[in-house]
Amino acid sequence: MKIIILGAGQVGGTLAENLVGEKSDITIVDTNNERLRELQDKFDLRVVNGYGAHPDVLREAGAQDADMLVAVTNSDETNMIACQIAYTLFNTPNKVARIRSEAILAEQDKLFRPEAIPLDHLIAPEQLVTDYISRLIDYPGALQVMNFAYGLVGLVAVKAYYGGPLVGNALSVLRDHIPNAETRVAAIFRRGHAIRPQGTTVIEADDEVFFVAASTHIRSVMSELQRLEEPYRRIMIVGGGNIGAALAKRLESQYSVKLIERKLARAEHLSEVLNNTIVFCGDASDQELLNEEHIDQVDVFIAVTNDDEANIMSALLAKKMGAKKAMVLIQRTAYVELVQDGVIDVAISPQQATISALLTHVRKGDIVNVYSLRRGAAEAIEAIAHGDQHTSKVVGRMVGELKLPPGTTIGAVVREDEVIIAHDDTRIEQDDHVVMFLVDKKYIPDVERLFQPSPFFL
């Protein structure tokens, strides 16, 4: 597949890194020559220096025969115009753009149509992060929560703690503990290394366990792996930008929400548009303010400003002063690993959320959901099985018969509204949604080929 990426920032660079290893023909466009040289030295790709919305630059990048244009520059306007030009001049078949502006997103149904701005897929990072944090709040104690098959299935990451009912026991006893909630452990990471889950695998404290279950059974399974946390009630949000405001709006009807915003004008605006959120103008690293607002009674402290250092430091202070849990938005990938092994409970990377959404549209075959995990090393995928026994390598076959790549686990099969936890004797039928976990993303092309029907397959 020939893909042009506009924007060599963290998202564009990370996307290129993900795709280069999958034998895609990648060209990346940016005005920063130094950044382009850096990427070209690291990866096997083409670079073009220039403005992505200029026809001559797109022509030089090969838009005339490109399969896809991914516009992820820092300018919404550039991303939209680039997609318009790619459609009008070059008839590029697939166009994806990152859009951040709330004003533009509010009119997306009218704007992004073939007769207006011909955009095939829209990526809104702030919405993705808001959804991600909301899922974590819905399931106290989860490190990650990923939805598949229209929300019928969840893939959840939890840390196994001392005292948990399953710690020290083999996976085979999980069914005995929760006979009415079927689940499948898709992967285990122990001290940073993947372990293939088998019935004889014994869960150890501090293992990071990824399990698949019907969404209605997630809480039951979590209670077996760790001490089930009480539902959150009091939430403090730091940062009144797009993410903080949207998160407060979504949570304020169910939780007691306080929001701290540094800029007075923005704080005044939020106090008017939010109905049940208490808004403060101040500095979240002000001990006196946190003390006055009873930080020791806060269940979740969520720092989502644009400043990584401010987010980290305020969260560390909040935890020290008694906040039960801290979630932090971190832009710099290098910081994510540093904080997640320490006092901060959850590090949230908007880049990873954006990359996951982009990969959903880039993957070959009928891949309808992709989540980039473990800082890009692993992936969770939802694929739809098409064809029949004569054209498909999966339809009509049992899971145990499939030639899955190393480290690949099929966790669940969704057939219409029925969730089937996968076992070796589970038979895959046409139009089934198949949820998989790959501990090594280098095998993604093998999975894509597995789910691509072919008239020549016998």
Could you characterize the architecture of this molecule?
This protein is an alpha/beta fold and 458 residues long. Helix content is 32%, strand content 25%. It has helices spanning 10-20, 33-42, 55-61, 76-90, 102-106, 108-111, 125-138, 174-177, 218-225, 242-251, 264-273, 287-292, 308-320, 333-340, 350-362, 444-450; strands at 2-6, 25-30, 46-49, 68-71, 94-98, 121-123, 144-148, 153-159, 183-190, 193-195, 208-214, 234-238, 256-261, 278-281, 300-303, 326-329, 346-348, 367-373, 378-384, 408-415, 418-421, 433-438. Helix 1 crosses helix 15, helix 7 (125-138) runs parallel beside helix 10 and helix 7 packs across helix 15 (350-362). The model has no long low-confidence stretch (mean pLDDT 89).
Topology, element by element:
Blueprint: E1 2-6, H1 10-20, E2 25-30, H2 33-42, E3 46-49, H3 55-61, E4 68-71, H4 76-90, E5 94-98, H5 102-106, H6 108-111, E6 121-123, H7 125-138, E7 144-148, E8 153-159, H8 174-177, E9 183-190, E10 193-195, E11 208-214, H9 218-225, E12 234-238, H10 242-251, E13 256-261, H11 264-273, E14 278-281, H12 287-292, E15 300-303, H13 308-320, E16 326-329, H14 333-340, E17 346-348, H15 350-362, E18 367-373, E19 378-384, E20 408-415, E21 418-421, E22 433-438, H16 444-450
Parallel strand pairs: 1-2, 1-4, 2-3, 4-5, 5-6, 12-13, 12-15, 13-14, 15-16, 16-17
Antiparallel strand pairs: 7-8, 8-11, 9-10, 9-11, 18-19, 19-22, 20-21, 20-22
Helix pairs in contact: 1-15, 7-10, 7-15
